[in-house]
Every structure is written in structure tokens, then in C-alpha cells.
Amino acid sequence: MQVVGSPSSMVYSGVTHALKVITSTEGIRSLWRGVMSVVLGAGPAHAVYFATYEQTKKMLTNAAGGNANALAAGAAGGVATIVSDALMNPFDVIKQRMQLSGSGYRNIFDCAVKVFRNEGLRAFYVSYPTTILMNMPFQSIQFGCYDMFRRSLNPSGSYSPTTHVIAGGMAGAVAAALTTPIDCCKTLLQTRGASVDSEVRAASSMTTAAKIIYRKEGMSGFLRGMRPRVIANMPATAISWTTYEYFKWMIARRDTQHNK
Prior knowledge:
By secondary structure, the protein is mainly alpha-helical. Helices cover 72% and strands 0% of the residues. Helix 6 (161-178) runs antiparallel to helix 10 (226-259) and helix 7 packs across helix 9.
């Protein structure tokens, strides 16, 4: 829905309509096109993200005299975003390319090889600055909202899976909605090589992408795909935070029992 200059981008009037058109013309399996790219990249990227986050937060907290604060958490999240996105960005580009209607790629490896051969290594990172620009505010909003929702739902701060699921899902929804305009610019840059529009193919920065979207579709162009983005991020962030909090709790309990 966010792709500019693609014939399919002018067909969909909403999420339900998009689902009907895609399944009827390309089959239901096409809804999972590119999923293996996400599977291969998400695991290592999340491991790097949380490891970087914890280490950076610990370092900043120690530098501040041992007092943990929101500023240290936010800065640590920013550093973790930069590192993990450097790993995840190529996988995201492959996913976007494979999800284009009529892309013709047999699998993720075929897609990676053809993109590299036709557009070079730069194609995998042309949207990296925009991804960072998008994900840093996304993570800052998500971390802030999660902490606020978690404290409101569970003032005691004890381990509560229900609290983590609800707080994580709500935080992801808010962050996804507020950063949709930047995601539209990122999508344009990631899919420019497959566009039939010469102006889109020549786009090389977030500013250029934003100008193209505004000129062709107006302000509404920056809201394309907001609903599916929110729908996708709610369970993803809920699962991510619940898993993270569970392993933190489990490791802390194991260490406590070990020290007894």
C-alpha cells in the first residue's frame, strides 16, 4: 500500500481490499512472501539489539554514579537501534522487494543476488539513514510508552506477563502510528529500483522521497499503510517485550537461587 510508482499501489483502497486483491490475483501464499527474510534477520538483530541496549545502559548508568534514569535508557535504545538496524536493513530490503506485486523472485537468495547484481551493495543500505531516523523515534516512543503503561498497569513492578503483553502492544501501536510518515519514505527508497516512475527511481534521500510522496499523493500519502503497520506492530512488540521481561525474570531468579 505504501509503494509509490507501482501499479498495485493505485489499486488498494484499504487493508481489506488489499487482502482480497492480493489473494485473488496472487494466491494466499503471497501474503507471506518475503517472510523468510524477516525470520533470518529478526533473531540475530533482536539479540544484538537487547545485548547492546543492556551493555550501553549499564555503562551510562555507571557513568552517572549508578543511578538508572530514563535518559540513560533512551540513549542506550538509540545506540542499540543503530547497531541492530545495520544488520537488519538488508533483510528488510529483500522483504520489501519480494512483497512487490509480480516481483518474480524465486526466493530470498535469488532476490538478494539480483538486487546486488543490478543495483550494487548500496541498494541494501540506501534506506539505512531513513531507517535510523524512523527507528530511533520509534524506539524512544515505544520505550517511553511501555514504561508509562507498565507502571500504570502494575505499580508494584513485579513480573506480570499480562502487564507486559498489554503494555508492549499499546506501546507498539502508538509508536507505529506516529512514525508511519517516515516509514512511507523508507518504503519508497527501498522499492525505488522496482518502480516504473523515473522520478521515484532517482530518489536518493528521505527529503526527496517526502517531496515525491507529497507532490503525487498529498498529505494522505504519508498515512498510507498506517492501519496494517499498527496491526503488525502490536503483536510484535507485545511478544518482544513479554519475551524480554520473561528471560530477565528467569535469569534474575536463577541467579538469586544460585547465590543462596
